[in-house]
Design brief:
Blueprint (H helix, E strand, L loop, with lengths): L3 H19 L3 H38 L5 H20 L10 H32 L5 H16 L2 H6 L9 H10 L1 H25 L13
Length: 217
């Protein structure tokens, strides 16, 4: 029963959501919308569990003076301060003039921008090491990557501003992103969608049981 009941519940819920997505009947759509709302509630509960686990782990490491423990204290103070400010402002915490919005724009956005700026250098360094031009395909990939990277920054416009418009780097970069890149991305998206469908069917039929933390049988 410990295995059959969860599998039965999963199968019924999966089939109902699958039917409710394609059948517009009001009776089915009402239940389907209610289930979607419960999913949102459950996802919100997982955020609470995530924050609780984050507090538990970092409080333990900060109290034991583990490695980088001062940064963990800063993290805990940031979580506590942001939570207090957000809860104190109630439903108005997202207003443009709220203190929560000020904290978000002043600290979080600035730190996120810094992280992404540093990430660009790491990506460029990794691309330089990864691109070993041994074949024609690798050479085309390296040339396309170089055009896109230079063409999407102001220096690309500066270097080719005196050339006719069809030969400017930003135009080539936009063409690469609009046509070849979009074609490859859509192919990957279609493949990922088919993979999601196959995994969903395996879960509904009880073939995939990794979510139950047991070996498949």
């Amino acid at each position: 029963m410990k295995r059959q009941v969860p599998l039965l519940i999963t199968m019924i819920a999966g089939l109902f959501c699958l039917i409710g997505f394609f059948v517009p009947h009001p009776a089915i759509r009402t239940w389907y919308d209610d289930i979607q709302q419960w999913v949102i509630v459950i996802v919100g509960a997982t955020y609470v569990l995530g924050v609780a686990n984050l507090l538990r782990v970092n409080l333990k490491q900060a109290s034991e003076r583990a490695r980088d423990w001062p940064y963990k204290i800063v993290l805990l103070l940031g979580i506590a301060g942001t939570s207090i400010v957000g809860f104190s402002e109630g439903t108005h915490y997202l207003d443009p003039t709220s203190k929560f919005t000020w904290i978000y724009n002043t600290f979080y956005s600035a730190m996120s921008a810094t992280m992404f700026a540093l990430l660009a250098f790491y990506i460029a360094s990794a691309a330089f090491r990864a691109f070993r031009i041994r074949t024609i395909d690798a050479g085309l990939l390296a040339i396309a990557a170089l055009i896109v990277m230079i063409g999407r920054v102001p220096i690309g416009q500066f270097l080719t501003k005196n050339l006719p418009e069809p030969w400017q780097l930003p135009v080539w970069a936009s063409w690469l992103l609009e046509w070849p890149q979009n074609a490859a991305k859509r192919g990957i998206a279609i493949g990922a969608g088919l993979g999601v469908m196959a995994t969903g069917l395996r879960i509904i039929l009880g073939i995939e049981r990794n979510y139950m933390r047991e070996d498949q049988s």
